[in-house]
């Protein structure tokens, strides 16, 4: 009885609605018109559909698709084949070109059929009503919603042309498997653009939206194929195609090419999205975290393209090398690779078997840097302030400062040694003496340009000379800082993001920072020379095979809890960290030097 009453109300109210339209149009000038009321109550300005955003590698390859919350790429009218438009009109709304948004004869037919069945057996929604439902309303079957649907459909017809409505409709409808709109569906199921689809494939896709779950082609291919053939028969029955053509289309094989969402290099993409947050906050001057999150969500829903500096070959090798040289399941690793010539982060490895959403050790792990901090905090500040050469002598003997008594490796005392030897053999007591001579606060002032996130005043102690920090630094931070040694003392924060554009290719965001000079070129040359000797004849000899110009610095923390190597070769600066997530001794693998072997593999030309 309720179903009968509901349909009777619709059947009676729609003509009444039409009468209101006619009557109010004759009363123009006496009162606010019905159309003006609709304009005031139904705002169609916010019709923008959410679309898929993309992250691109340096070579232009799409590496990540970002659905927020749905996979949609908008297809303009000229990008949509006429054939599929015809299929939808014939199957969904044959009076599409004639009605004002709703179809009274169709409503009458549905009313009669549903009365006999005592239930909803046939609908009467036009394409315009379906568009209204998809973009503005919901899919709940109620008579109040049906009346709202009619009003919205009428307003859509007043606002847009039939061509525009059909275009919006084909971009709004759901094709299952998170594919919204014809462009996403063509890509998800066939890996094609809409215009590349055969007519049989177009009819196959047109079969899905009628009931996306029931006609899910991945799970219910036969059902979808059967409906495709029925749609083709309808085209023939209405004279849109010949019987011969229909037979040909129905016998054409349909071969699906379905892949999962692209997320090819999640280590790198996760950082690119992290950096996007900083970029938007910087450009838009947004400090409130909630406001920033809403802005980023809005941006990603708009369908942007994020161009990055990812070098696919270097990224692949970094991930492979970490897995290959760290067979122990309890030992993890991370790597960062930067092209110091253009400031692009070209590779990031967040850990073995990294997946999206995992803890990314490349930029989220903060660990004691060990002796890898010495070039930045000890030797460069010293050369900058004193006229010392790499042959100048320094005391490598025993030392105690207010109860702090650092030791050289193995506990040896070496007396007076050249700075070169102290550096390349990574003696600790000379480093502490040099830091004391420069002044702890003075040396730390040089590090401000590098913006180490967790380096604070608590770290301003003599032990910092050998990496004794309260929290520590991340692999990406330390590698970024080392780029100063390949840029004549100038530092510009390395970035993954090159630019962000909208769908029209217009620039939305890019970094515009200027480099800052930290040390003079003379200082840099001395440190580079020491780093090169470290690779050729010092603690990093296992990395020497990459080439004669390579240089870097090793770092090992107390009890072998962290292994580091940061260095340069050609246009790249790379850093590798090896350790356990819960710090424990790795003395058993110390002689294998896995950090050097990983770095060597990544940096081979």
Can you describe what's shown?
The protein starts with a helix and ends with a helix. The longest helix has 25 residues, at 2-26. Strand 4 (332-339) and strand 5 form a beta hairpin. The chain has a 5-stranded mixed β-sheet with strand order 2-1-3-9-10, with helices on one face. The chain has a 5-stranded antiparallel β-sheet with strand order 5-4-14-13-12, sandwiched between helices. It has a two-stranded antiparallel ribbon with strand order 6-7. The chain is of the alpha+beta class and 605 residues long. The chain is built from 22 helices and 14 strands. Helix 1 (2-26) runs antiparallel to helix 4 (104-117), helix 9 packs across helix 10 (221-237) and helix 12 (266-284) crosses helix 13. The relative contact order is 0.09. The protein has a domain at 318-603: 3-Layer(aba) Sandwich (Beta-lactamase). Mean pLDDT is 87; it is low at 1-13, 19-32 and 117-122.
Label the structural class: alpha+beta
Please describe the biggest sheet, giving its number of strands, its sense, and whether it closes into a barrel. 5 strands, mixed
Low-confidence stretches: 1-13, 19-32, 117-122
CATH superfamily of the domain at 318-603: DD-peptidase/beta-lactamase superfamily
Number of helices: 22
Q: Strand order within the widest sheet?
A: 2-1-3-9-10
CATH-level-2 architecture of the domain at 318-603 = 3-Layer(aba) Sandwich
CATH topology of the domain at 318-603: Beta-lactamase
CATH C-level class of the domain at 318-603: Alpha Beta
Radius of gyration: 33 Å
Helix content: 40-55%
Number of distinct beta strands = 14
Strand content: 5-15%
Integer average pLDDT = 87
What distance separates the N and C termini?
79 Å
Name the overall outline. elongated
């Amino acid at each position: 009885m309720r179903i009968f009453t509901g349909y009777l109300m619709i059947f009676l109210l729609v003509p009444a609605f039409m009468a209101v339209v006619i009557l109010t149009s004759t009363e123009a000038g006496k009162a606010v018109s019905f159309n003006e009321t609709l304009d005031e109550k139904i705002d169609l300005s916010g019709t923008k559909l959410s679309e898929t955003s993309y992250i691109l590698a340096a070579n232009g390859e799409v590496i990540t698709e970002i659905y927020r919350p749905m996979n949609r790429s908008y297809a303009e009218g000229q990008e949509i084949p006429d054939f599929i438009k015809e299929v939808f009109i014939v199957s969904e709304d044959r009076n599409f070109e004639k009605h004002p948004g709703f179809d009274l004869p169709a409503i009458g037919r549905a009313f009669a059929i549903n009365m006999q069945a005592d239930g909803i057996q046939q609908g009467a929604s036009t394409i315009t009503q379906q568009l209204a439902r998809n973009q503005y309303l919901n899919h709940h079957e109620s008579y109040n919603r049906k009346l709202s649907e009619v009003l919205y459909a009428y307003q859509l017809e007043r606002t847009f042309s039939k061509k525009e409505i059909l275009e919006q409709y084909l971009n709004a409808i759901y094709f299952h498997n998170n594919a919204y709109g014809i462009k996403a569906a063509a890509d998800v199921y066939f890996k094609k653009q809409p215009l590349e689809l055969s007519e049989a494939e177009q009819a196959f896709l047109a079969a899905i939206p009628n009931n996306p779950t029931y006609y899910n082609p991945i799970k219910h291919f036969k059902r979808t194929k059967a409906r495709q053939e029925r749609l083709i028969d309808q085209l023939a029955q209405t004279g849109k195609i010949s019987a011969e053509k229909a037979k040909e289309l129905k016998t054409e094989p349909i071969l699906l090419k379905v892949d999962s969402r692209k997320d090819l290099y999640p280590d790198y993409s996760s950082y690119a999205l992290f950096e996007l947050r900083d970029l938007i906050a910087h450009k838009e001057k947004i400090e409130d975290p909630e406001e920033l999150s809403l802005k980023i969500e809005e941006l990603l829903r708009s369908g942007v393209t994020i161009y990055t500096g990812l070098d696919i070959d270097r990224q692949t090798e970094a991930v492979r090398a970490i897995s290959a040289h760290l067979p122990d399941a309890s030992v993890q690793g991370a790597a960062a690779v930067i092209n110091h010539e253009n400031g692009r982060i070209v590779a990031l490895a967040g850990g073995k078997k990294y997946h999206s959403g995992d803890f990314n050790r490349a930029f989220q792990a903060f660990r004691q840097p060990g002796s890898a901090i010495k070039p930045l905090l000890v030797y460069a500040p010293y050369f900058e302030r004193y006229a010392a050469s790499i042959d100048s002598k320094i005391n490598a003997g025993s030392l105690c400062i207010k109860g702090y008594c650092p030791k050289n490796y193995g506990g040896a005392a070496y007396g007076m040694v050249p700075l070169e030897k102290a550096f390349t053999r990574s003696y600790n007591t000379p480093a502490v003496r040099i830091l004391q001579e420069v002044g702890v606060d003075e040396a730390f002032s040089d590090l401000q340009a590098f913006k180490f996130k967790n380096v604070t005043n608590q770290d301003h102690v003599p032990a910092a000379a050998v990496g004794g920090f309260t929290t520590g630094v991340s692999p990406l931070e330390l590698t970024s800082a080392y780029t100063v040694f390949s840029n004549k003392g100038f530092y510009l924060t390395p970035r993954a993001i090159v630019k962000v554009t909208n769908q029209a290719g217009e620039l939305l965001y890019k970094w515009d920072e200027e480099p800052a000079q930290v040390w003079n070129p003379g200082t840099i040359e001395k440190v580079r020379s020491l780093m090169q000797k470290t690779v050729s004849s010092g603690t990093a000899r296992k990395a020497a095979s990459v080439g004669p110009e390579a240089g870097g610095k090793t770092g090992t923390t107390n009890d072998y809890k962290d292994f580091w190597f940061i260095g340069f070769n050609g246009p790249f600066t790379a850093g590798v960290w090896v350790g356990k997530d819960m710090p424990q001794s790795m003395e058993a693998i110390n002689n294998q030097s896995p950090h050097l072997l990983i770095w060597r593999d990544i940096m081979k030309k």
